[in-house]
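Sample intake sheet
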Amino acid sequence: MNKETLQTIYKQHQSRYMQEWETFLAFPSISAMEAHQADCEACASWLVSHLQGMGMDATLLEKDAKPVVFATYHVSDDAPTVLYYGHYDVQPVDPLELWESEPFTPTRKGNRLYVRGAQDNKGQTFYVLKALETLISQDALAYNIKFMLEGEEEIGSPGLAEAAQAWKDTLQADILMVCDTCAPAPGIPAISMGLRGIAYFEVELSGITSDLHSGAHGGMVKNPAVELARLIATFHDEDGHITVEGFYDDVAHISEEDRALANQFPFDTQTYIEQFGVEPIGGEKAFNAIESRGFRPTLEVNGFHSGYGGQGVKTIIPAQATAKFSARLVGHQDPEKSLEQLLTHTRKHAPKGLKMTIRHATAGGPAILLSSQSPLIQHTRTILNQLGEHETVLAWEGISIPIVADLATLSGAEPLLVGFGLEEDRIHAPNESFDLDQFALGFLYAGLFLSTPFKR
Protein backbone atom coordinates (compact mmCIF):
# COMPACT_ATOMS: atom_id res chain seq x y z
CA MET A 1 0.00 0.00 0.00
CA ASN A 2 1.36 3.44 -0.86
CA LYS A 3 1.78 6.46 1.38
CA GLU A 4 -1.03 8.49 -0.17
CA THR A 5 -3.62 5.74 0.35
CA LEU A 6 -2.55 5.29 3.97
CA GLN A 7 -2.78 9.03 4.59
CA THR A 8 -6.29 9.13 3.13
CA ILE A 9 -7.45 6.24 5.31
CA TYR A 10 -5.88 7.81 8.38
CA LYS A 11 -7.72 11.09 7.85
CA GLN A 12 -11.02 9.26 7.31
CA HIS A 13 -10.72 7.30 10.55
CA GLN A 14 -8.64 9.62 12.74
CA SER A 15 -11.50 10.56 15.06
CA ARG A 16 -12.30 6.89 15.76
CA TYR A 17 -8.61 6.05 16.22
CA MET A 18 -8.31 8.80 18.84
CA GLN A 19 -11.40 7.62 20.74
CA GLU A 20 -10.18 4.03 20.84
CA TRP A 21 -6.69 5.09 21.83
CA GLU A 22 -8.07 7.18 24.70
CA THR A 23 -10.07 4.17 25.93
CA PHE A 24 -6.86 2.12 25.96
CA LEU A 25 -4.98 4.91 27.78
CA ALA A 26 -7.62 5.25 30.51
CA PHE A 27 -6.69 1.90 32.07
CA PRO A 28 -4.33 2.60 35.03
CA SER A 29 -2.24 -0.46 34.19
CA ILE A 30 0.64 0.22 36.58
CA SER A 31 2.62 -3.01 36.83
CA ALA A 32 4.77 -1.91 39.77
CA MET A 33 1.81 -1.62 42.14
CA GLU A 34 -0.16 -4.65 43.32
CA ALA A 35 -3.20 -2.43 43.83
CA HIS A 36 -3.47 -2.16 40.02
CA GLN A 37 -3.44 -5.89 39.26
CA ALA A 38 -7.13 -5.84 38.33
CA ASP A 39 -6.58 -2.79 36.10
CA CYS A 40 -3.80 -4.60 34.25
CA GLU A 41 -6.02 -7.65 33.75
CA ALA A 42 -8.89 -5.48 32.52
CA CYS A 43 -6.58 -3.71 30.07
CA ALA A 44 -5.33 -7.05 28.73
CA SER A 45 -8.89 -8.33 28.28
CA TRP A 46 -9.87 -5.14 26.44
CA LEU A 47 -6.93 -5.62 24.08
CA VAL A 48 -7.97 -9.19 23.30
CA SER A 49 -11.47 -8.01 22.38
CA HIS A 50 -10.07 -5.15 20.30
CA LEU A 51 -7.70 -7.44 18.38
CA GLN A 52 -10.51 -9.91 17.75
CA GLY A 53 -12.61 -7.05 16.41
CA MET A 54 -9.81 -6.33 13.93
CA GLY A 55 -10.09 -9.89 12.59
CA MET A 56 -7.16 -11.41 14.47
CA ASP A 57 -7.10 -14.60 16.54
CA ALA A 58 -6.36 -13.29 20.03
CA THR A 59 -6.02 -14.78 23.49
CA LEU A 60 -4.30 -14.36 26.84
CA LEU A 61 -1.17 -16.36 27.59
CA GLU A 62 -1.13 -16.81 31.36
CA LYS A 63 1.96 -16.43 33.50
CA ASP A 64 2.50 -15.90 37.22
CA ALA A 65 1.39 -12.26 37.36
CA LYS A 66 0.19 -10.06 34.51
CA PRO A 67 -1.20 -11.91 31.45
CA VAL A 68 0.42 -11.67 28.02
CA VAL A 69 -1.81 -10.65 25.11
CA PHE A 70 -1.09 -12.72 22.01
CA ALA A 71 -2.73 -12.47 18.58
CA THR A 72 -2.05 -13.84 15.11
CA TYR A 73 -3.08 -13.19 11.53
CA HIS A 74 -2.07 -15.61 8.78
CA VAL A 75 -1.57 -14.36 5.22
CA SER A 76 0.02 -17.38 3.54
CA ASP A 77 2.47 -20.18 4.20
CA ASP A 78 4.96 -18.49 1.86
CA ALA A 79 4.92 -15.09 3.56
CA PRO A 80 7.60 -14.18 6.12
CA THR A 81 6.47 -13.63 9.71
CA VAL A 82 6.68 -10.48 11.82
CA LEU A 83 6.53 -10.84 15.60
CA TYR A 84 5.53 -7.50 17.11
CA TYR A 85 6.47 -6.91 20.75
CA GLY A 86 5.11 -4.12 22.95
CA HIS A 87 3.70 -3.60 26.43
CA TYR A 88 0.45 -2.37 27.92
CA ASP A 89 1.80 -1.61 31.41
CA VAL A 90 2.87 1.88 32.41
CA GLN A 91 5.00 3.61 35.04
CA PRO A 92 3.64 4.89 38.36
CA VAL A 93 2.46 8.50 38.25
CA ASP A 94 4.33 9.89 41.27
CA PRO A 95 4.80 12.70 42.10
CA LEU A 96 1.08 13.23 41.52
CA GLU A 97 1.14 16.92 42.50
CA LEU A 98 3.30 17.76 39.46
CA TRP A 99 0.70 16.60 36.96
CA GLU A 100 -1.20 19.41 35.25
CA SER A 101 -4.09 17.07 34.37
CA GLU A 102 -5.39 13.76 35.70
CA PRO A 103 -2.77 11.06 34.89
CA PHE A 104 -5.31 8.61 33.44
CA THR A 105 -7.71 11.08 31.86
CA PRO A 106 -6.47 11.73 28.29
CA THR A 107 -6.24 15.49 27.85
CA ARG A 108 -5.63 17.24 24.52
CA LYS A 109 -3.45 20.37 24.63
CA GLY A 110 -2.48 21.77 21.27
CA ASN A 111 -1.13 18.92 19.17
CA ARG A 112 -0.34 16.67 22.13
CA LEU A 113 -2.25 14.11 24.16
CA TYR A 114 -1.33 14.12 27.86
CA VAL A 115 -1.80 10.95 29.93
CA ARG A 116 0.39 8.27 31.48
CA GLY A 117 1.34 5.80 28.71
CA ALA A 118 0.59 8.32 25.94
CA GLN A 119 3.87 7.40 24.30
CA ASP A 120 5.41 4.61 26.39
CA ASN A 121 4.19 2.23 25.13
CA LYS A 122 0.46 2.45 24.57
CA GLY A 123 0.71 5.25 22.01
CA GLN A 124 3.41 3.63 19.92
CA THR A 125 1.69 0.25 20.07
CA PHE A 126 -1.65 1.72 19.09
CA TYR A 127 -0.47 3.31 15.85
CA VAL A 128 0.85 -0.12 14.86
CA LEU A 129 -2.54 -1.65 15.75
CA LYS A 130 -4.40 0.84 13.60
CA ALA A 131 -2.03 0.36 10.66
CA LEU A 132 -2.44 -3.39 11.02
CA GLU A 133 -6.22 -3.03 11.13
CA THR A 134 -6.06 -0.97 7.91
CA LEU A 135 -3.95 -3.53 6.05
CA ILE A 136 -6.13 -6.43 7.16
CA SER A 137 -9.27 -4.63 5.98
CA GLN A 138 -7.61 -3.82 2.62
CA ASP A 139 -6.08 -7.30 2.18
CA ALA A 140 -2.68 -5.59 1.89
CA LEU A 141 -0.55 -7.36 4.49
CA ALA A 142 2.76 -8.71 3.19
CA TYR A 143 3.55 -10.70 6.36
CA ASN A 144 2.08 -13.21 8.70
CA ILE A 145 1.62 -11.41 12.01
CA LYS A 146 2.22 -12.46 15.59
CA PHE A 147 1.34 -9.73 18.05
CA MET A 148 2.61 -9.93 21.65
CA LEU A 149 1.91 -7.38 24.39
CA GLU A 150 3.11 -7.97 27.94
CA GLY A 151 2.10 -6.28 31.18
CA GLU A 152 5.36 -6.15 33.14
CA GLU A 153 7.95 -4.46 30.93
CA GLU A 154 8.20 -1.49 33.27
CA ILE A 155 9.35 -3.77 36.11
CA GLY A 156 11.86 -5.74 34.04
CA SER A 157 9.61 -8.46 32.54
CA PRO A 158 10.03 -10.84 35.51
CA GLY A 159 9.43 -14.44 34.55
CA LEU A 160 8.55 -13.69 30.94
CA ALA A 161 11.75 -15.14 29.47
CA GLU A 162 11.19 -18.35 31.42
CA ALA A 163 7.49 -18.54 30.53
CA ALA A 164 8.26 -17.82 26.86
CA GLN A 165 10.37 -20.97 26.68
CA ALA A 166 7.11 -22.92 26.62
CA TRP A 167 5.91 -20.74 23.73
CA LYS A 168 9.07 -21.07 21.66
CA ASP A 169 7.43 -22.84 18.70
CA THR A 170 4.56 -20.35 18.72
CA LEU A 171 6.92 -17.36 18.66
CA GLN A 172 9.03 -18.39 15.65
CA ALA A 173 9.37 -15.46 13.25
CA ASP A 174 11.64 -13.71 10.76
CA ILE A 175 11.48 -10.14 12.07
CA LEU A 176 11.03 -8.94 15.66
CA MET A 177 9.34 -5.55 15.31
CA VAL A 178 9.52 -3.15 18.26
CA CYS A 179 8.15 0.42 18.39
CA ASP A 180 9.28 1.63 21.81
CA THR A 181 12.14 3.98 20.92
CA CYS A 182 12.57 7.62 19.97
CA ALA A 183 13.29 9.90 17.03
CA PRO A 184 15.84 12.73 17.29
CA ALA A 185 13.38 15.48 16.35
CA PRO A 186 9.89 15.91 14.90
CA GLY A 187 9.65 14.43 11.41
CA ILE A 188 13.11 12.81 11.47
CA PRO A 189 12.86 9.01 11.44
CA ALA A 190 15.43 6.86 13.21
CA ILE A 191 16.36 3.20 13.43
CA SER A 192 17.76 2.17 16.78
CA MET A 193 20.91 0.12 16.40
CA GLY A 194 21.15 -1.01 19.96
CA LEU A 195 19.59 -1.09 23.38
CA ARG A 196 21.33 -1.18 26.73
CA GLY A 197 20.85 -4.02 29.19
CA ILE A 198 19.77 -3.38 32.76
CA ALA A 199 20.28 -4.43 36.36
CA TYR A 200 19.01 -2.77 39.53
CA PHE A 201 19.03 -3.04 43.30
CA GLU A 202 18.16 -1.19 46.49
CA VAL A 203 20.35 -0.58 49.56
CA GLU A 204 19.12 0.27 53.04
CA LEU A 205 21.28 1.30 56.00
CA SER A 206 19.60 0.94 59.37
CA GLY A 207 20.14 -0.37 62.90
CA ILE A 208 19.16 2.68 64.95
CA THR A 209 15.92 1.89 66.77
CA SER A 210 14.35 5.29 66.03
CA ASP A 211 15.21 8.80 64.85
CA LEU A 212 17.63 10.35 67.35
CA HIS A 213 18.15 13.87 68.67
CA SER A 214 21.06 15.27 66.65
CA GLY A 215 22.41 17.12 69.67
CA ALA A 216 22.17 14.33 72.21
CA HIS A 217 23.53 11.69 69.85
CA GLY A 218 25.48 13.60 67.20
CA GLY A 219 29.07 12.33 67.07
CA MET A 220 28.15 9.15 68.96
CA VAL A 221 26.46 7.10 66.22
CA LYS A 222 26.93 6.69 62.49
CA ASN A 223 24.38 8.74 60.55
CA PRO A 224 22.72 6.40 57.96
CA ALA A 225 22.15 9.26 55.48
CA VAL A 226 25.79 10.39 55.64
CA GLU A 227 27.13 6.85 55.40
CA LEU A 228 24.89 6.01 52.45
CA ALA A 229 26.06 9.16 50.67
CA ARG A 230 29.65 8.06 51.26
CA LEU A 231 28.84 4.60 49.88
CA ILE A 232 27.28 6.11 46.77
CA ALA A 233 30.39 8.24 46.22
CA THR A 234 32.58 5.12 45.98
CA PHE A 235 30.94 4.03 42.71
CA HIS A 236 32.48 6.73 40.47
CA ASP A 237 35.76 8.58 40.17
CA GLU A 238 36.18 12.23 39.18
CA ASP A 239 36.24 11.33 35.47
CA GLY A 240 32.83 9.62 35.64
CA HIS A 241 34.41 6.17 35.43
CA ILE A 242 32.59 3.42 37.34
CA THR A 243 35.04 2.09 39.92
CA VAL A 244 33.51 -1.38 40.35
CA GLU A 245 36.15 -4.07 39.84
CA GLY A 246 35.75 -5.93 36.52
CA PHE A 247 32.72 -3.89 35.45
CA TYR A 248 34.21 -2.88 32.08
CA ASP A 249 35.77 -6.27 31.24
CA ASP A 250 33.03 -7.28 28.78
CA VAL A 251 32.21 -3.89 27.26
CA ALA A 252 32.25 -4.35 23.48
CA HIS A 253 34.73 -2.51 21.28
CA ILE A 254 32.92 -0.10 18.97
CA SER A 255 34.23 0.34 15.45
CA GLU A 256 35.21 3.79 14.25
CA GLU A 257 32.58 3.44 11.51
CA ASP A 258 29.76 2.93 14.01
CA ARG A 259 31.12 5.68 16.24
CA ALA A 260 31.05 8.05 13.27
CA LEU A 261 27.51 6.94 12.33
CA ALA A 262 26.33 7.48 15.89
CA ASN A 263 27.71 11.01 15.88
CA GLN A 264 25.65 11.84 12.78
CA PHE A 265 22.61 11.73 15.06
CA PRO A 266 21.28 15.30 15.22
CA PHE A 267 21.93 16.51 18.76
CA ASP A 268 21.91 20.13 19.84
CA THR A 269 23.36 20.92 23.26
CA GLN A 270 21.45 24.17 23.64
CA THR A 271 18.14 22.49 22.85
CA TYR A 272 18.92 19.84 25.44
CA ILE A 273 19.61 22.54 28.03
CA GLU A 274 16.34 24.31 27.18
CA GLN A 275 14.38 21.06 27.54
CA PHE A 276 15.98 19.68 30.69
CA GLY A 277 17.64 22.64 32.38
CA VAL A 278 21.18 21.22 32.55
CA GLU A 279 24.14 20.52 30.29
CA PRO A 280 24.61 16.95 28.96
CA ILE A 281 27.99 16.51 30.65
CA GLY A 282 27.43 13.38 32.71
CA GLY A 283 29.16 10.05 32.13
CA GLU A 284 32.82 9.45 31.35
CA LYS A 285 34.79 12.48 30.25
CA ALA A 286 36.42 10.54 27.40
CA PHE A 287 33.07 10.23 25.57
CA ASN A 288 30.58 12.80 24.34
CA ALA A 289 26.88 12.68 25.19
CA ILE A 290 25.85 10.58 22.17
CA GLU A 291 28.67 8.07 22.69
CA SER A 292 28.00 7.82 26.41
CA ARG A 293 24.33 7.11 25.83
CA GLY A 294 24.79 4.51 23.12
CA PHE A 295 28.06 2.75 23.85
CA ARG A 296 28.95 3.05 27.54
CA PRO A 297 27.55 1.48 30.71
CA THR A 298 26.19 3.67 33.50
CA LEU A 299 25.24 3.42 37.15
CA GLU A 300 22.63 5.86 38.41
CA VAL A 301 20.98 6.59 41.75
CA ASN A 302 17.23 6.54 41.07
CA GLY A 303 16.13 7.63 44.52
CA PHE A 304 17.49 8.54 47.96
CA HIS A 305 15.21 8.59 50.98
CA SER A 306 16.11 9.43 54.57
CA GLY A 307 15.08 11.54 57.52
CA TYR A 308 12.81 14.54 57.60
CA GLY A 309 11.73 16.17 54.34
CA GLY A 310 8.88 18.35 55.54
CA GLN A 311 8.64 22.08 56.01
CA GLY A 312 11.02 23.79 58.38
CA VAL A 313 13.66 22.25 60.62
CA LYS A 314 13.73 18.94 62.48
CA THR A 315 17.12 18.26 64.03
CA ILE A 316 17.42 14.48 63.96
CA ILE A 317 19.75 11.68 63.01
CA PRO A 318 17.51 9.51 60.79
CA ALA A 319 17.04 5.88 61.77
CA GLN A 320 17.57 4.63 58.24
CA ALA A 321 18.48 5.64 54.70
CA THR A 322 17.59 3.96 51.41
CA ALA A 323 18.92 4.34 47.87
CA LYS A 324 17.73 2.76 44.65
CA PHE A 325 20.26 2.05 41.89
CA SER A 326 20.04 1.03 38.25
CA ALA A 327 22.85 0.08 35.87
CA ARG A 328 22.56 0.29 32.10
CA LEU A 329 24.75 -2.27 30.39
CA VAL A 330 26.30 -2.42 26.93
CA GLY A 331 28.15 -4.67 24.52
CA HIS A 332 28.64 -8.15 25.88
CA GLN A 333 28.10 -7.39 29.56
CA ASP A 334 26.15 -10.17 31.24
CA PRO A 335 23.45 -8.73 33.55
CA GLU A 336 23.88 -11.44 36.21
CA LYS A 337 27.66 -11.01 36.29
CA SER A 338 27.45 -7.22 36.29
CA LEU A 339 24.88 -7.23 39.09
CA GLU A 340 27.08 -9.45 41.24
CA GLN A 341 30.04 -7.12 40.63
CA LEU A 342 27.94 -4.19 41.82
CA LEU A 343 26.71 -6.03 44.91
CA THR A 344 30.24 -7.17 45.77
CA HIS A 345 31.38 -3.55 45.64
CA THR A 346 28.43 -2.49 47.79
CA ARG A 347 29.16 -5.08 50.48
CA LYS A 348 32.86 -4.24 50.41
CA HIS A 349 32.07 -0.61 51.29
CA ALA A 350 29.40 -1.33 53.91
CA PRO A 351 29.95 1.04 56.88
CA LYS A 352 30.69 -0.37 60.31
CA GLY A 353 28.18 0.33 63.04
CA LEU A 354 25.08 0.04 60.82
CA LYS A 355 23.07 -2.78 59.29
CA MET A 356 23.05 -3.08 55.49
CA THR A 357 20.14 -4.71 53.65
CA ILE A 358 20.12 -5.26 49.88
CA ARG A 359 16.70 -5.70 48.26
CA HIS A 360 15.18 -6.18 44.82
CA ALA A 361 18.50 -7.16 43.23
CA THR A 362 17.43 -7.97 39.68
CA ALA A 363 19.31 -8.71 36.47
CA GLY A 364 17.23 -7.72 33.45
CA GLY A 365 17.85 -8.42 29.79
CA PRO A 366 21.23 -7.99 28.12
CA ALA A 367 22.19 -5.29 25.65
CA ILE A 368 21.54 -5.55 21.93
CA LEU A 369 23.88 -4.38 19.18
CA LEU A 370 22.72 -4.50 15.55
CA SER A 371 24.72 -4.26 12.35
CA SER A 372 24.46 -1.10 10.30
CA GLN A 373 25.10 -3.29 7.22
CA SER A 374 22.05 -5.53 7.78
CA PRO A 375 19.82 -5.89 4.65
CA LEU A 376 16.77 -5.48 6.93
CA ILE A 377 18.13 -2.15 8.20
CA GLN A 378 18.72 -0.98 4.62
CA HIS A 379 15.21 -2.08 3.58
CA THR A 380 13.69 -0.21 6.52
CA ARG A 381 15.69 2.94 5.78
CA THR A 382 14.23 2.96 2.26
CA ILE A 383 10.71 2.79 3.70
CA LEU A 384 11.32 5.44 6.35
CA ASN A 385 12.79 7.82 3.78
CA GLN A 386 9.35 7.91 2.13
CA LEU A 387 7.76 9.54 5.18
CA GLY A 388 8.98 13.07 4.57
CA GLU A 389 11.83 15.30 3.56
CA HIS A 390 14.32 14.09 6.18
CA GLU A 391 16.76 11.23 5.72
CA THR A 392 16.63 8.39 8.23
CA VAL A 393 19.34 8.38 10.89
CA LEU A 394 20.80 5.47 12.84
CA ALA A 395 20.73 5.76 16.63
CA TRP A 396 22.43 3.80 19.37
CA GLU A 397 19.88 4.04 22.17
CA GLY A 398 20.52 4.38 25.87
CA ILE A 399 17.22 2.82 26.93
CA SER A 400 16.55 -0.79 27.87
CA ILE A 401 13.74 -3.11 26.83
CA PRO A 402 14.69 -6.10 28.95
CA ILE A 403 12.96 -8.92 27.09
CA VAL A 404 13.89 -8.03 23.50
CA ALA A 405 17.20 -9.93 23.46
CA ASP A 406 15.52 -13.03 24.90
CA LEU A 407 12.67 -12.83 22.38
CA ALA A 408 15.10 -12.48 19.49
CA THR A 409 16.91 -15.64 20.62
CA LEU A 410 13.73 -17.61 21.25
CA SER A 411 11.98 -16.59 18.03
CA GLY A 412 15.02 -16.69 15.76
CA ALA A 413 13.95 -13.26 14.48
CA GLU A 414 16.12 -10.26 13.64
CA PRO A 415 15.22 -7.26 15.85
CA LEU A 416 13.97 -4.08 14.19
CA LEU A 417 13.68 -1.07 16.49
CA VAL A 418 11.89 1.98 15.10
CA GLY A 419 9.96 4.46 17.20
CA PHE A 420 8.54 7.97 16.97
CA GLY A 421 8.78 9.19 20.54
CA LEU A 422 10.48 12.50 21.33
CA GLU A 423 12.49 13.70 24.32
CA GLU A 424 9.76 16.20 25.15
CA ASP A 425 7.25 13.36 25.65
CA ARG A 426 8.50 13.11 29.26
CA ILE A 427 8.07 9.35 29.55
CA HIS A 428 8.40 8.03 33.13
CA ALA A 429 7.79 11.58 34.41
CA PRO A 430 4.72 13.68 35.27
CA ASN A 431 2.84 15.12 32.28
CA GLU A 432 3.80 12.40 29.81
CA SER A 433 2.42 13.14 26.34
CA PHE A 434 2.66 12.15 22.69
CA ASP A 435 2.73 14.40 19.65
CA LEU A 436 -0.18 13.59 17.33
CA ASP A 437 1.89 14.22 14.21
CA GLN A 438 4.42 11.66 15.45
CA PHE A 439 1.57 9.22 16.05
CA ALA A 440 0.47 9.73 12.44
CA LEU A 441 4.04 9.18 11.19
CA GLY A 442 4.18 5.95 13.18
CA PHE A 443 0.95 4.83 11.50
CA LEU A 444 2.45 5.55 8.06
CA TYR A 445 5.67 3.69 8.89
CA ALA A 446 3.85 0.63 10.19
CA GLY A 447 1.49 0.62 7.23
CA LEU A 448 4.27 0.94 4.65
CA PHE A 449 6.56 -1.56 6.34
CA LEU A 450 3.93 -4.26 6.87
CA SER A 451 2.67 -3.97 3.28
CA THR A 452 6.12 -4.01 1.66
CA PRO A 453 7.69 -7.48 1.32
CA PHE A 454 11.26 -7.98 2.50
CA LYS A 455 13.38 -10.74 1.06
CA ARG A 456 16.99 -11.39 2.02
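Comment: Residues 155 and 193 are 23 Å apart (CA to CA). The chain has 13 helices and 18 strands.
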